[in-house]
Specification:
The complex is a heterodimer of chains A (116) and B (114). Chain A is an all-beta fold. Chain A is 0% helix and 51% strand. Chain A has no helices and twelve strands. In chain A, strand 8 and strand 9 form a beta hairpin. Chain A is globular and about 45 Å long. Chain B is mainly beta and 114 residues long. In chain B, 0% of the residues lie in helices and 53% in strands. Chain B contains no helices and eleven strands. Chain B has strands spanning 5-7, 10-13, 19-24, 31-38, 42-50, 53-57, 64-68, 74-78, 87-94, 104-105, 109-113. In chain B, strands 2, 4, 5, 6, 9, 10 and 11 form a seven-stranded mixed β-sheet that branches. In chain B, strands 1-3-8-7 form a four-stranded antiparallel β-sheet, with no helix packed on it. In chain B, strand 7 and strand 8 form a beta hairpin. The model of chain B has no long low-confidence stretch (mean pLDDT 93). The chains are: A mainly beta (116), B mainly beta (114). Chains A and B meet through strand 5, strand 6, strand 10 and strand 11 of A and strand 4, strand 5, strand 9 and strand 10 of B.
């Protein structure tokens, strides 16, 4: 069974500073994918970044980067130069092997609040 | 390109009733998944449909069911509603076979049970 753990229920960050959101995972499958989503108060889940288990380099997408440490089973999201619009819930999710289809297992989420 | 469309956005029902939620995926996406989000249990996978067939199912009672039509649109049905079914129901679509492609979510249907 797969499990995602996000240990930070809530975090504050000053505008324009960088912030790291933690995510650890547990799986026995050698092939998996890790995703980060942002959920504003409106409810929509917005895809941010993806990391495959066999990817050699850490993923980056604009201000988002993923600190992937496979041996430690961690996939932390780094947001650089925080903006007020970054205030939202952030979810780490894992997709399993091919026979599990597209099912995602989510962590409990981290609420990020950006202070002006 | 239109995103995932879920209808209705809000729904109020009473215990014992049944409800049907609808999801139209992004054009060309044949996989549709449903998730339930509650404050207590977080985001939980309900089921996934691909080419009108249920491919995977989460740990939910049989009151929760779904189907997918030939145009990839999907519906989920909850019968004999309980107070605990109050939740945000999210639908997501994705490309088949592209493992690095994310699931794209709709805005959700917020279901309240009185």
């Amino acid at each position: 069974a797969q499990k995602i753990t996000q240990t930070q229920p809530g975090m504050f960050v000053q505008e324009k500073e960088a912030v790291t959101l933690d995510c650890t995972y547990d799986t026995s499958d050698p092939s998996y994918g890790l995703f980060w989503y942002k959920q504003p108060s409106s409810g929509e889940m917005i895809f941010l970044i993806y990391q495959g288990s066999y990817d050699q380099q850490n993923a980056t997408e604009g201000r988002y980067s993923l600190n992937f440490q496979k041996a430690r089973k961690s996939a932390n999201l780094v947001i650089s130069a925080s903006q007020l619009g970054d205030s939202a819930m952030y979810f780490c999710a894992m997709r399993g092997p091919y026979n599990a289809g597209n099912m995602l297992t989510f962590g409990g989420g981290t609420r990020l609040m950006v202070k002006p | 390109k239109a995103g995932v469309t879920q209808t209705p956005r809000y729904l109020i029902k009473t215990r014992g009733q049944q409800v049907t939620l609808s999801c139209s995926p992004i054009s060309g996406h044949r996989s549709v998944s449903w998730y339930q989000q509650t404050p207590g249990q977080g985001l939980q996978f309900l089921f996934e449909y691909f080419s009108e067939t249920q491919r995977n199912k989460g740990n939910f009672p049989g009151r929760f069911s779904g189907r997918q039509f030939s145009n990839s649109r999907s519906e989920m049905n909850v019968s004999t509603l309980e107070l605990g079914d109050s939740a945000l129901y999210l639908c997501a679509s994705s490309l088949q076979g592209a493992r690095d492609q994310p699931q794209h979510f709709g805005d959700g249907t917020r279901l309240s049970i009185l």
